[in-house]
Amino acid sequence: MSQTFISRRRVLKSGVAALCVPALGGLARAQGGPPIRLALVESLSGPFANTGEAVFRNLLWAVERVNARGGIALPGGARPLQLDRYDSKGQTEEALSALRSAIDNGAQAVLQGNSSATAAAILDAVDKHNERDPRRRLLFLNYSAVDPILTNERCSFWHFRFDAHADMRVAALMAVFKDDRTVGSAYLIGQDYSFGQAVLRESRRRIAELRPDVRIVGEELHPMGKVKDFAPYAVKIKASGAQAVFTGNWGNDLTLLVKAAREVGFEGKFYTFYGNALGAPAALGDAGVGKVIAVADWLPNVPTPESAAFYRSFRARFPNPADDYVHMRMQLMVEALAQSIAQAGSTEAAAVAAKLENARVSLAGRSGRMRAADHQFQQPLVVGLMDRQGTPGVAFDVEGSGYGFRVIKDIAPEQAELPTTCRMQRP
């Protein structure tokens, strides 16, 4: 069943203040039609529940912002957005079941991102549904599933990715690593599914290309979300003599890995996709200072007044330190969708997609554009280095840990952009 954010009990259970509940009710009554329903399909229980709840908070905040300014202008009157929650429990089959429920409940877009394997299954299901039932077509908005294949060989007119894909993120990390002469050996470790495999494959290729002097002293994949004790992996990493670890791990698989590495006394660096949040800085503590590097579309310590104000606004909305993990790309995604619906003058999926594939959006001094050729969002990327809060460039910490990330590399969209092999089939 769907779990809408207008359900007071479910909103409170999610740790989100109930003040948004009457606001949507008033909008729905005052405006020109029923809410435009967005279906969030994520792990809201199980080992990756924290990542799903972090996504929900981000999307809720973005939806609230659209609704606070009156919703989306359409013929017949403005309409609000409504965010419905569907728990995939971290399982692809559950996600597909949730998608079917969302379609039956009138969803006009499905939003998912945590797990590229799940994203691939949803993409296939959306393609087939839209062909079979054109009167109920919907869009697939992807904010975190970064297997490159999704906007290359598997690209779809109905799918839009707002995160940089794995190869783009690896390239950003390598822009820093290529000049890091303190590292002469590296260990590659990741989750054993399409995304983790893609990260290791591209990391290996880029290291050989940019730093042929660096030895890869270990490479392995582990089951996703099933390892409770990473000590055996950490022992192998330390014994290998590696001076740096490259990993795309996320959620508990990252937190437990870095915690185990600290406990066995590993003193090397971590080049990560997601080392900047969800428990990793607190797990490392002082051992991570100057040694954990993370790539993102944005970091709280991006050195501009607009960025600082944006981050303070999010923390004012969600003051609990445990709720701290804001994603600029998710805010831009909702803004792009709202803009495209208004420009289309319709919620019909094909009409909205035709506008969304050329969308350009800006927020808090950051901006991006959708590339029509493959529906891969093009945006700046930043690389940050973990340090203590209060040191130069680290005004904000992560989750109240006392540690934050100083921006050491800001990569322009045209530098982050990579070619695509997509051959888009349009309806």
CATH first level of the largest domain: Alpha Beta
Strand content: 15-25%
The first-to-last residue Cα distance is 31 Å
Order of SSEs: EHHEHEHEHEEHEHEHEHEHEHHHEEEEEH
Poorly predicted regions are 1-30
The shape is globular
Count of runs of 4 or more consecutive helical residues: 14
Helix content: 25-40%
Radius of gyration: 21 Å
Structural class: alpha/beta
The total count of strands amounts to 16
Family: Belongs to the leucine-binding protein family.
Protein name: ABC transporter permease
Domain Leucine-binding protein: 35-387
InterPro entries: BCAA_transport (IPR051010), Leu-bd (IPR028081), Peripla_BP_I (IPR028082), TAT_signal (IPR006311)
Keywords:
427 residues; alpha/beta; Rossmann fold; 7-stranded mixed sheet; 6-stranded mixed sheet; 14 helices; 39% helix; TAT_signal; signal
Overview of this protein structure:
39% of the residues lie in helices and 20% in strands. The chain has 14 helices and 16 strands. It has helices at 8-13, 20-30, 49-68, 92-104, 116-132, 166-177, 194-210, 231-240, 252-263, 280-284, 305-317, 328-344, 349-356, 413-416, and strands at residues 3-4, 36-42, 81-87, 109-112, 139-142, 159-161, 185-191, 215-222, 244-247, 269-272, 292-296, 360-363, 366-371, 376-378, 381-388, 403-411. Strands 8-7-9-10-11-15-16 form a 7-stranded mixed beta sheet, sandwiched between helices. Helix 7 links the parallel strand 7 and strand 8 (215-222). Helix 3 (49-68) crosses helix 12 (328-344), helix 4 runs parallel beside helix 5 and helix 6 (166-177) runs parallel beside helix 7. The radius of gyration is 21 Å and the shape is globular. It starts with a strand and ends in an 11-residue tail after the last helix. Belongs to the leucine-binding protein family.
